[in-house]
Amino acid sequence: MAFCTNCGQEILPGEKFCSHCGHPVKGMGQEGASASGKTERTICIQMNPAGNKRNGPLLNQKVSVFADGLLVWEGVAADRAEFKLERPAKVEIKYKGSLMSFSASQTLRIDPSDGPYYNVECKNGPFGNKLIVSRVDRLD
User: Fold this and answer.
1) How far is Cα 119 from Cα 131, in angstroms, rounded to an integer?
2) DSSP-assigned beta bridge partners for residue 98
3) How confident is the model at residue 7, as a pLDDT?
4) pTM score, two decimals?
5) Helix (H, G, I), strand (E, B) or coil at 20
6) How far apart are CA 77 and CA 87, in angstroms?
7) Per-residue pLDDT tens for 50-65?
8) One-letter-per-residue 3-state SS of 34-66
């Protein structure tokens, strides 16, 4: 789920302009100028669902992403998180548990100049889930 950088309304996939305020939508991984005049970059994180051999992936598992303590994205596993960063930030990814799965979280530092694409794998273990975050050259 993406949001307009001007008014904060949800942007539907493929839209070039916000349907609420008309602000142009920047493409994934593109750079642009923020309101402060600094260069910002869209960070894309592919959220892969937890699961097991018996039940398969848990596609409705809720996921939240925080940058420097502020909520920047919320969705479900199997979605792609997209948000803007103009400087390095402490990013926390939280998978929320359900009755059938454990919660998991991972905190890392993301520097927009290192690259815009990240992948998250949620591995089930005997004592809970573990998130493994890696920077990748592209997302499929």
Assistant:
1) 10
2) 101
3) 72
4) 0.66
5) coil
6) 26
7) 665 555 555 577 889 9
8) CCCCCEEEEEEEEECCCEECCCEECCCCEEEEE
